[in-house]
Amino acid sequence: MPAPKRKPAATAATKATPKAAKNKVAEKLARLGLRTDMDLVLHLPMRYEDETKIVPIREAGFMTGYPAQIEGIVTSCDVQFRPRRQLVVKVQDDSGELVMRFLNFYGSQTKQLATGTRIRVRGDVRHGFLGHEMVHPSYKVVTEGAPLPSALTPVYPSGEGISQALLRKAIGNALTRVDWRDTLPPPLLSSLDLPAFEWSVKLLHNPTPEVDEHALTERTHPAWTRMKFDELLAQQLSLKRAQAARRSQGASPLPVIGKLSQEFLNTLPFALTAAQQRVLDEIRADLREAFPMQRLLQGDVGSGKTVVAALAAAQAIDSGFQAVLMAPTEILADQHFRKIAAWMEPLGVNVAWLTGSLKKKEKQDAQARIESGRAQLIIGTHALIQEGVEFSRLGLVIVDEQHRFGVGQRLALRNKGLDAAQADESKQTVPHQLMMSATPIPRTLAMTYYADLEVSVIDALPPGRTPVLTRVIDQNRRDEVISRVHAAALEGRQVYWVCPLIEESEALQLQTATETYETLAATLSDLRVGLVHGRLKQAEKQEVMEAFVRGELQVLVATTVIEVGVDVPNASLMVIEHAERFGLSQLHQLRGRVGRGTAESVCVLLYQSPLGPVAKQRLATMRETNDGFEIARRDLEIRGPGEFLGARQSGQAILRFADLATDQWLVEQARDAAQMLLKEQPAVAEAHLARWMGIREEFLKV
Ligand code: ADP
Ligand code: MG
Asked: Its Enzyme Commission number (predicted)?
């Protein structure tokens, strides 16, 4: 044991014990984010314990699986050493005897639980060696006839060093002090059939025994519904306010749809789909405004987002500004560069390329072109947000596969476009932003987390695509699959062979990829097989990809580096090994690499049996549907929103009470109410936000 700390000499602060103790409690509570009385009042129970009843010990024996509360007299209390050191206490009532077992205990407990003491014990009963027993139950010493609580006992989310008793006391005090005024007007509440704030909160903290316990724990009780609604409403209001704040910022309008835009459209080998045209019109209208666009462009894999982005860039360039396109991987950035440069350079556009793998000289050259404004369209990776990259007149920022970037990275790119010469922040102009994502976000999530963005959806694929046929096949039929690959290649098809994902070790993943490549190259000795993985130098990657694009390679063995964006229309067969290790959206993205041409495409998902239930569900989903939105919806069901959203929301548990999987209807009501309040009753909106958001609003600023 550590030596007892020497007491510091008494000072003014330590003498004032009550105050010091109070500060200490406040400090502990602050660690849970509980600073104000309202914070405490809104710290709602995560569950309840029923201490309102005592059951006879004999009866408790039939209640396996539920916690039971008994009361009795201690008949023995011993420290035993077999099978290991433990405190064993026997308790008796009129109906029988029960053993309590403590593996961790304090010496003082043997005194507290001396023979003859009356105790109330709460815990799960199980059948042990010595009859009914409870392991580590909670208990307290009582006098005969001590009153039972009349309400269910709330159990609060807590943290280290913060006891339930402390929380209950602090919350109990706060409940007597807060301003109970309802933030929502009675007509709104009655139209939504919601109970009053005060009634709801008090009921949740101190439910009377007749309240349906099931409805409380499942959070379906109307009191919970009110809390969820309030929370969702605050979120909607906050997002809408963030949107309004953005609109009050300035941006340079990009109004010209001129020569470049026209010629570009004319030289495209295809016509835009109706969906692309609609989305383009939405973007074009935004770009004309003098406040920054912040639009999320969603469209399933292969729906043709790139050309829309290029047309947006053309409008920026036509208007005399620079546009930048950032992609998450070098392969993708490279592909964009090639494709867009091939479209635009013949039309006289100066396109620059900037990634981490450029040689120093090339990098300096690119930076000089960007800074002087000679480069009109700049394409690259994260390298774009590094120090030393200065834009001359950045009007439009495009982020491809935006979910791959963190908020900070996207913000950093946007900030490159701030006008450094303008010291007055309120007069600074901000570039327009277009974010693209092929991971469709289900409607509820989009409504909840992206209510501050404009959202455009390309909801149809270009014509002439045949849906990819997906087959799920046991790994033990791998040889059959290889001969099929062979046959397909001889017919002139190109094949992706995706190596297993090994999350724990990049080295192992690399080794597996190399081995897969070697065995396939040996087995398919009459075919030209290539290998691409993340560790290759950029030039090597590029060389392999180019050879595949030109059709010189028939089979491309690849790691997930090809997951996003890669576009080789002639590839029509994909094999994914150990498909059970991949997530649903990842499988969908990978599969999106085929089915880009007119040939019928096949995706083979090889799996290692036995499959767990989640993996089984995923593979079945892949077999059943090609629709990215449907896949996203099921993915959300399987994984929950936290994991689903990735960077934007990580670590930001904004919703504490509402559950997006079950409370979708409330989200819609909250959205409508938010719109109505902002328009008709802004003071109500203000008061509601003040009560609910507090510091959490910080999260939503970006
Ligand atoms: P994604 O939305 O996944 O980024 P891409 O922009 O890579 O999709 O487009 C997929 C393929 O479809 C590309 O080869 C592209 O040139 C082609 N494409 C895009 N729009 C059309 C269209 N309207 N008609 C025919 N092909 C198109
Ligand atoms: Mg793309």
From this structure: 5.6.2.4
pLDDT tens readout for residues 352-409:
999 988 889 999 999 999 999 999 999 999 999 888 889 999 999 999 988 777 777 8
The CATH code of the domain at 259-458 is 3.40.50.300
- What the block records as the tokens of 580 is 């059970």
- How many other CB atoms sit within 10 Å of the CB of residue 291? 16
Atom of ligand 1 nearest to the CA of 273: 23
> Is the dihedral angle over the CA atoms 121, 123, 127, 130 positive or is it negative?
negative
Those residues whose C-beta lies under 8 Å from the C-beta of residue 658, and which sit 6 or more positions away, are 228, 231, 232, 666, 667
CA of 644 to the centre of ligand 2 (A): 19
The residue with tokens 């500004």 is 321
Domains 53-148 and 469-625 agree in fold: no
**Residue closest by Cα to atom 19 of ligand 1:** 304
Which ligand 1 atom is at minimum distance from the Cα of 400? 4
Mean residue pLDDT across the chain: 86
Question: 26-60 pLDDT, tens per residue?
Answer: 888 888 888 889 989 999 998 888 888 899 998 88
| Chain CA centroid to CA 356, Å | 28
* Residues paired with 571 in a beta bridge: 494
Q: How is residue 681 written in tokens?
A: 């009753």
**CB-based contact 567:589 (threshold 8 Å):** no
Q: What are phi and psi of 76, to 5 degrees?
A: -160, 155
pLDDT at 424: 62
Sketch the domain layout of the chain as residue ranges.
53-148, 259-458, 469-625
Distance 275 CA to ligand 1 centre (A): 12
Residue 146 is classified by DSSP as P
pLDDT in tens, 65-92: 678 899 999 999 999 987 789 999 999 9
Closest ligand to the CA of 596: 1
C-alpha–C-alpha distance, residues 530 and 521, integer Å:
8
Name which residue sits closest to atom 25 of ligand 1, judged by CA. Answer: 462
For residue 269, cis peptide bond before it (omega within 30 degrees of 0): no
- Please give the Cα distance from 51 to 68 (Å, whole number): 8
| Residue 147, pLDDT above cutoff 60 | yes
Q: Can you tell me whether residue 322 is helix, strand or coil?
A: strand
CATH class given for the domain over 53-148: mainly beta
CATH number for the region 469-625 comes to 3.40.50.300
Q: Is the Cβ–Cβ distance between 297 and 436 less than 8 Å?
A: yes
Q: Alpha-carbon distance 377 to 605, whole Å?
A: 39
487 half-sphere exposure, CB direction, 13 A CA radius: 6
